[in-house]
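Regression test attached.
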Amino acid sequence: MGRKLAAGNWKMNGTSADLAEVKALSAAHPAPSVDILLCPPATLLARMSDLAAGGALVTGGQDCHAEAAGAHTGDISAGMLRDAGATHVILGHSERRTDHGETDTDVCAKTAAALAAGLIAVVCVGETEAQRDAGETLDVIGTQLAGSIPDGCTGATLVVAYEPVWAIGTGKVPTLEQIAEVHDFMRARLAARFGDTAADMRLLYGGSVKPGNAPEIFATSNVDGALVGGASLKAADFSGIIAAL
Ligand code: G3P
């Protein structure tokens, strides 16, 4: 396993003024021992990428269209993200699946488009609280993994984020045993499908990660980093998480 990954998802937050956080973050981590990724809203992507250029921080999109170009008002292609300086793109986040009805098939097509454009895909999976209560967690994760990830992925091109829907923005976090169970399961499923390269696929945990709970989460089996929402918006908070990796 290579370097760990601290990924921030700004979601629909941030305007020009918030680019100051990127400067602060870059200055605080001139030569970090982990990879640092920030995924701002599309409006900030090019400027954030320019600010980050030459430093340790890289940038990503939060979604892309499955097609390379065309009549899709409001959408952004993977190639456009690359052109704006992105190296990664988050795909299949539960908020996209819920707000925009994205299915595993949609996410798979978008992931294939991202890979074709030379981006690293950060594919998100996660169960709802009702699914966990019904004992369906591993079934749900297995189905999402199988359906959302195209053939041909490698440790260099695919990151998977486990984000329990009920833990996102709620302050609720699964037990370390629950996180380990899902991450171990994901590693085994990916290894069964992709072989040895699965050992290099980084598996991120996401959902209410804060500087305070990051150390124990990062010490958990098969956790290779985090996908962080709220606590990635401020350099001071995100730095605390990066320092825990
Ligand atoms: O993609 C990150 C995310 O959904 C987790 O959000 O605010 O709970 O860290 P948050």
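Expected vs. actual: identical. The mean pLDDT is 97.
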